[in-house]
Amino acid sequence: MTQYLVVSAIAGEARYVPDGVPVVVTGVGKTAAAVAVSRALAERDTTDLVVLNVGTTGALRDGLSGLFLPSKVINHDVNADAVRAIGLDPQDELPIEGGDGTVLASGDVFVADPVVRARLAERAQLVDMEAYGVVYACRAYGVPVRVVKHVSDSADEAALDWPALVDASAKVLGEWVSENVR
């Protein structure tokens, strides 16, 4: 029987996850996410476990709204070309099984600058700060992961209102978990 572990950056994003579904709050950023998920996976039996990274996301392209299940996460703030140039694999793009075809740029930059948004929109539709770390850790442990993101803002100046927008996204995310975790 499949067991689920919900992972969110902040408690507010997981506020409406149904009782009985375990939740790990990672803190903000890829490193915090990778460490928290690694710790959680090391402390439990991962047989039949699926990690669900649920949280908010910024839309990098106009008109995007709603719920997304990305198929790929990219580490947008690593200098991947330079790492490749010295003969190493930066693993800057990670596939996610069961996605909807969208690409999520993940990095330690809170995107509210239109220039950064436009640059990232060339490679992705969405942006967050934790999914890459979550997916990376799950891959290291051989645990399946799904990323479920709800658009909270447009990754522009309005993103600075993010704290006030989290609850609306959390309700949608909680409904998705209720409907899809059995």
Supply Rg. Answer: 15 Å
Strand content: 15-25%
Average pLDDT score: 93
C-alpha end-to-end distance: 9 Å
Report the order of strands and helices: EEHEEEHEEHEHEH
Figure out the total of helices.
5
Structural class: alpha/beta
Helix content: 25-40%
> Unreliable segments (pLDDT under 50, ≥5 consecutive)?
none
What does the largest sheet look like?
Answer: 9 strands, mixed
Number of E-state strands: 9
What does this structure look like?
The model has no long low-confidence stretch (mean pLDDT 93). This protein is α/β, with parallel strands linked by helices and 182 residues long. Strands 1, 2, 3, 4, 5, 6, 7, 8 and 9 form a 9-stranded mixed beta sheet that branches.
What's the SSE blueprint?
Elements lengths: L2 E6 L14 E3 L4 H13 L6 E11 L7 E2 L3 E4 L4 H6 L7 E3 L7 E4 L7 H8 L4 E3 L2 H11 L3 E9 L8 H19 L2
Parallel strand pairs: 1-2, 1-3, 3-9, 5-7, 7-8
Antiparallel strand pairs: 3-8, 4-9, 5-6
Helix pairs in contact: 1-4
